[in-house]
Specification:
With 181 residues, this protein is of the alpha+beta class. The protein has helices at residues 2-20, 41-63, 67-76, 78-91, 167-180, and strands at residues 30-35, 98-107, 110-112, 115-117, 120-129, 136-142. It is built from five helices and six strands.
Length: 181
């Protein structure tokens, strides 16, 4: 029986290690990520126009919703985002397709206003213009912090160490250290 317990514990630990890499850094956050076709000045300007239109149209709507409602809306209405972005592209006289994906993406450490969001995985609506090979722009779609002029984009310095801890993970690691160390 002792051997089976050790094998079960080992499998459980491996599953926890694997699961830790899939945990969202902040489950209440949904990011907006707009990726330009290229780094040309025209494509970068187009990216900003698409960003501005999405924020202008949907920012007030999402401000009245809870996170789960925003997530459900994004799941069901990606075509609305494609249409909004495509209209901006057409109005600018550009010829590039628009793709929209609602998925989980990795993001670096960022500060918005006075809030700090750690590096990690976040729910994200990604709008890709053309080949999507240009510089990108992102903000928080929920909670609504997509205020273009106020978004802070500089990275924090190396000496500012921020760690997001998951209470359950810490408890499990501590338990296994007591049992096996």
């Amino acid at each position: 029986m002792h051997g089976h317990t050790r094998i079960a514990c080992t499998i459980f630990m491996l599953l926890l290690v694997f699961a830790q890499g899939t945990v969202l850094a902040n489950g209440n956050v949904i990011r907006l990520h707009v990726i330009a076709n290229s780094n040309s000045p025209e494509d970068q300007q187009l990216k900003e126009q698409v960003r501005d239109q999405i924020i202008a149209e949907l920012g007030p709507v999402f401000a009245e919703m809870e996170q789960r409602q925003v997530a459900a809306w994004l799941e069901e209405n990606q075509d609305v985002l494609v249409n909004l972005a495509s209209a901006v592209v057409m109005e600018a006289g550009a010829d590039c397709p628009v793709q929209v994906h609602y998925k989980v993406e990795d993001y670096p450490l960022r500060a918005y206003r006075e809030k700090i969001y750690p590096e990690g995985k976040y729910r994200s609506v990604q709008i890709v213009l053309g080949k999507g090979q240009g510089r990108n722009w992102w903000c928080l779609l929920f909670p609504p912090l997509c205020f273009v002029s106020e978004t802070v984009t500089e990275e924090l310095s190396d000496d500012q160490e921020i760690q997001g801890r998951i209470w359950l993970w810490d408890q499990i690691k501590e338990l296994f250290q007591r049992l096996f160390c």
